[in-house]
Amino acid sequence: MSPAVPPPQPLDAASPAADPAVALTGVRRDYVVRAPVAGSRRRRRQVVRAVDALSLRIGHGETVGFVGANGAGKSTTIKMMTGILQPTAGALRILGHDPVPERRALARRIGVVFGQRSQLWWDLPLRESYRILGTMHRLTDRQREARLERLVDGLELGGFLSRPVRQLSLGQRMRGEVAAALLHSPELVVLDEPTIGLDMVSKEGLRRFLREDRAERGTTLFLTTHDMGDVERLCERIVVVDSGAVAYDGPLESFRQRLGAPRELIVDLEEPASELSLPGAARTLAVDAGGIRHRIAFSGDALTVPALLTAINQQVEVRDLSLREPAIEDLVRQISARNRRGGTA
Amino acid sequence: MAERSRPDLADRPVSTVRMVLTLYGSRLRSQASFRTSFIADVLGQALIVSVEFLELWVILSQVGVLGGMTLTQVAVVYGLGALAFGIADMFFGEIDGLSAQIRSGKLEVLLIRPVPMLLQISSLDLSLRRIGRIAVGLVMYVAALTIAGFEPSAATLLLAVTAPLAGALLFGALFTIAGAMQFWLIEGREFANAFTYGGNYVATTPGAVFALPMRAFFTFVVPATLVAYAPTLALLDLPGPALIPAWSGWLGLPAAVLAWIVAGALWRAGVRRYTGAGG
Amino acid sequence: MPQIGTLARVSTYWAVAAAAFRQYSTYRLATAAGVFTNSVFGLIRASILFAAITTAGGELSGYTIAQAATYVWLGQALLAPIEAFGTREVSQRVHQGDVAIDLLRPISFLGLYYAQKLGRSAFLLLGRGIPPMLIGALLTGLALPEDPWSYPLGMLSLLLAITVAFLADMLVNLTAFWLLETRGLTVVYTALMNLLSGLLIPIVWFPDWLLAIARATPFPSMLQTPIDTLSGRIPPLEALPLLGVQLGWIALLALAASAMLRAGVRSVEVQGG
């Protein structure tokens, strides 16, 4: 397991022993935008820094969730990792390749899913897309069919392989996209919002297969998401990016601990009550509806839900309850706020 | 699938040639499957080419000679030009839509595949409906050559066969240059039309009608007169006007090679700019 | 109160037209590119016509070099505002079902799109039409009309031409109610426009049978008529009947368009789409 904050190491491509699957060293990316100036027809050149001094090392076989608010620099980082975008400064090494100049060599060894854009052929049957992609990756017919069999089985594509992609539902298409990215058995799989817009069943199916495939092949997995469920089910390590730099990097289990009490229990009482007395790892956030509804925050590691409920039941009678898991945005916001406080203190 | 029943084929390694053929083949199959709209498209393309020739036909029915050429001779130029442009348009015409792909981000998907982007665009956006244009051009070219009294020798027969291909290569380079320009001028893709479609207009016209500066531009900068007009002079043994002697009919292929060197360099620079600027 | 209602409606149409004008005026690089391409095509066309006229001895069916130049550059100038290559917006909206939204608006469907077309055409004329004409005037010269009445009458004829083109294009688009794919029809429309409107060669150069066919269609009213009127090749008094023909086509096409629209809406309602 990697340390919570990896010590900055000089990138040494010559030593294969230390050669990680992904190595970003002080990567920066600026965009030049032309913003309209108020009250004038002219536009002003403006430099926007999307990624700033980002350093990250990922070993072979690791699974990393790359999370952050919109505009934090996630997509830009993925574009630089896949060779679509040249960094303004800093160095990248992905599977030993410099992404932009060695883009095609890298493309043979990585699989990418862009949740927002399709790499399937809209008007062709799904199976035809795999034939084309298989040819592009120079798979023999036997290699392609063998791999496809596994993917069709694991992602349950069998029912719509001969249907044109434009007729597929979002869930079907997304599974098709993942199969397209995995067809050539890539060593590194990069997923950009793979479950966006999917229902719970489709999400779970997709996550289950990604776990299985990784267990079979030892793939390195790198994914961005807005869904904490993706991170929890797929990743051992989480990297939070904020304003283009790494705000947190460490194992998933210590992520929540560091944040204190991010889970939230909401109880509705039979009778109104003022603030309840709670165990040490919990505290009341708010009392609403004239004392009926209590919102309680607690740390998921120090305190279990049954233990907390027992403590509450000793004082009042609970009519209804609901449990809210922290949204990834909230956690990220908390991390950044803490970092800023730390910075100014 | 046929491949499955033959196990020796299933393990055949994928050569570059086979990959290219598979990419083009998949597109051909998919387009021919939309029968009715496909036939309508092909006929529409044929109609447009025919109507554009009517312009020259009307003029020649009034004056008898245009740019020193009779109707049959002009028909050779027009047929050859339309044939060459049609082939290039089929393989490279969709590069025209590159700016839309840049804006929508679709280009990023092409970049994460281990195949040159130009090959992907050419094969996977192949528009088979241009076959209408090609067919009309071919029929006109062959028929008009025959009527115009073409007397083939080994050399001129070779020229007659290679001229459409050299012209197609040349227009292919022009389309690629036009596509590459869109990396810089995303909103200005119409600039390129002046050279691609404008080049087609010039190529299908007797080159002698142009005043010297234009003739020079469309011979030495955008070598459109070398596509059909100059080869026709050579094939029919006609004297050429200033700047375009009959022997320049043999220059189509070298010009195409030069144009592709420029196109390749410009395309690579365009892709470099795209990965640098991020679209 | 009908008075206020009418006023409000007029101001709505005005706002729609102004918005279309402004929207197009933001595409500055595209406009420059269009001007450039338009000018190159003008030069090619002028070269062909000049060669023909020179061969014919300086005059061909009433066209001298100067008149041919005027004909070419006016044609290039009007190409953009007429939108000779057809539009696809309405047919796409019909296919996507968005046309239902347009029909729910409190102003007339055809009126809404006509206002948009006028706003767009106004910009296209100023932005894409006038510059190539100035370039042409510098490179080949233009023949100016002798009678000052040619200018106002020509502008009126241009407005009528834009209206004819709008309605004809609308008819093609409205077939989307019944056809799944209208691209083939657009191609045919463009081909006929190229040939019969006088876009490539003056229709009076046509052999008699082709001229008869052209005059039986609305296409000459879209281009040949405003060009002849504006350039003064046809003096104002003789141009008046041609403007009458334009008005006739407008009446006929407007009737056809609204009938098609009604039938199309009915067919959608029947299918429940």
Describe what you observe in this structure.
The complex is a heterotrimer of chains A (345), B (279) and C (273). With 345 residues, chain A is α/β, with parallel strands linked by helices. Chain A contains 10 helices and 13 strands. With 279 residues, chain B is mainly α. Chain B has one domain (30-277). The mean pLDDT of chain C is 88. Chain C has one domain. Chain C has helices at 2-25, 28-55, 65-82, 89-96, 99-104, 109-139, 150-174, 183-196, 208-215, 219-222, 224-231, 236-271. Chain C is an all-alpha fold and 273 residues long. Classes of the chains: A alpha/beta (345), B mainly alpha (279), C mainly alpha (273). The interface between B and C is large, with 40 and 40 residues.
What is shown here, in short?
The complex is a heterotrimer of chains A (345), B (279) and C (273). With 345 residues, chain A is an alpha/beta fold. Chain A folds into two domains: 16-257, P-loop containing nucleotide triphosphate hydrolases (Rossmann fold), CATH 3.40.50.300; 260-325, Alpha-Beta Plaits.
- How many whole angstroms does the radius of gyration of chain C measure? 20 Å
- Helix content, binned percent of chain B: over 70%
How many domains of chain C, as an integer?
1
Structural class, from secondary structure content of chain C?
mainly alpha
The counted number of beta strands of chain B is: 0
The interface involving the most residues is between: B-C, 40 and 40 residues
Stretches of chain C where pLDDT is under 50 for at least 5 consecutive residues are: none
The number of domains of chain B is: 1
Tell me the distance between the termini of chain B: 40 Å
Please tally the helical runs of chain B, counting DSSP H or I stretches of 4 or more residues: 14
Q: Say what oligomer this is.
A: heterotrimer
**Main sheet specs of chain C:** none
Rg of chain B, Å, rounded: 20 Å
The span between the termini of chain C is 35 Å
Sum up the overall morphology of chain C in one term: globular
* β-sheet strand percentage of chain B: under 5%
